[in-house]
Every structure is written in C-alpha cells, then in structure tokens.
Design brief:
Elements lengths: L1 E5 L3 H13 L4 E6 L2 H11 L3 E5 L7 H10 L5 E6 L4 H9 L2 E6 L4 H35 L6 H11 L7 H14 L10 H9 L6 H32 L4 H10 L2 H12 L10 H16 L1
Parallel strand pairs: 1-2, 1-3, 3-4, 4-5
Amino acid sequence: MRYFIVDDDRASRKMLSTIINESELGSVIGEASNGQDAIPQILAIQPDFVLIDLLMPKLDGITTIEKLRENLYEGHFIMISQVVNKEMVAQSYEKGIEFFIHKPINKIEVETVLRKTEEQYRLKNSILAIRQSLSHFAEDKKHVKKTSRDHVQSILNDMGIVGEVGSEDITNIIELLLMDKYKISPLPPLKELYEKVASLTKSTADDIVKESKAIEQRIRRTILAAMINLANLGIVDYTNSEFEYYAPRYFDFTEIRSLMRQIEENDQRKAKVNIKKFIQVLFAEIISKVD
C-alpha cells in the first residue's frame, strides 16, 4: 500500500511513517504539513491511502478531502484527530473517511486500522477484478441461454463464494429441487436434501449419513463466508450494489449489521447462519430466472 501523510505536526508525521515502514504495512510516498500543499502532490502521485489530520492551518482535513474529490481523486482517507466531537466525526464519515486514528498516536491502533483498511481495499479490488474478467465473456455468451447452474454460479460469484467448497453442494441442492419440481410445494427438510446430494456420490447408508453431515458443515461455512464478504463490502461502501441486494434478501440483516460491528471491533464471535433461508431465497430466485 502507498500512503501519503497530511499533518501539521511534524512529530506525528514522523511517527506514522516509522510505524508504516517498521510494520511493513507499505510505503510512505509523500507528506505535507497542510491541505493546501498536499492537494497538488496527492493528485500527481495518486496514493492508495491518505492519512489526514482533521484540524490544520490553511486548509482543514474535511475541506481538503472535498477538494480532492472534486478533482476526481479516488483513493481512500483515514482521519487523524484528537477531536471527539460527534458532529465533526459524522461529517468526516459523510465525506468518505474509512477509519479514525486517534491522537496521541498509538502504534497498535495504527497497525490495526491500517491492516483492516488494507484487507478491505484488497477485497474490493478482487471483486472488481472478478467482475472485469467475467465481463469479457459477456458478449460471447449473451445469445446463449443460461442453465440453472449458470444462474446459481453467477449469484454465488456475486457474493464472493463461488470458489468455496460448499458452493458445489448448494448448486447440487438447487438442481435437485428443480428436478423434483418443488416449485409449488414447501421445500423438504434440509436433512432430506443433504441425503439426496450425498447419495449422488455415496452408496451405503453409513456413508450417506457421514457425507450428509459433511455437506451441512461445508454449506454452513460457505454461507458464513458470504456473510463476511458482504459485511466487509458494507463497511467499505454501504451503497455497494451487491451489499444492497443480497444482504437483506438472503440473510437476517440484523446479523449482517452485527457482523459488520464485530469485524470493525475485531470481535471473534461467530455469526448465526440460517441455511434454510439462504436455500429458499436462492431457489426462488433461480425459478424466476429459468421459467
């Protein structure tokens, strides 16, 4: 990651630069003591992240961010401040601040915040790269009718879980449901679905039971991965199209919001996974696409 530091306190700039370099978080490619001097440099070298002080002479942090956005700078901002005024903090988030680093500067806080923002930055870029790579195939396939498997894989891809081990189990369940024509009747119990999928590869009763349990665990982990991916997207950009569409439909949205807070607070508690709801919503959406 490439960082630019804007702070009128020379000691703070030195401390942040030292932490970034010694912790191997990236490289500091420039610095300035005020927003007025920082703007032309940032626009010229386009850093990934700008660490910017809230209160500075000549041009404060919020005004500097506004001017950079007006000039189409698309990087990320992390605010540095000892101000705890709620209104100013809210205004900073409205302008696109990713996180706050509080003064006096604490090495552990800086490392934690920068590692979190780096993870989210890489996740967002990975999803964008997947979208771009898939778009190359769109023209060739636009006249080809998609199968139910294609639709399922596309949805799982949007959630970032198409490569998870449980994605194939989920796809098999949807295909079995379509084959068994459960379009009107209620869906069968999940245990029955797991056993049907297990019987595709296992023959004895004991093996089917063992595989059924394994299928449940794979699907649970895969759906949890989707929840984590969407929660991270929501933290980075609450208006992200995938987050807005999938989070409230496929999951209990309160669980997603709770997971977002856990990620921000580095809370290791596990989120609740509702497999039945996920399968029901996915199946209903696939029916609407293939009918």
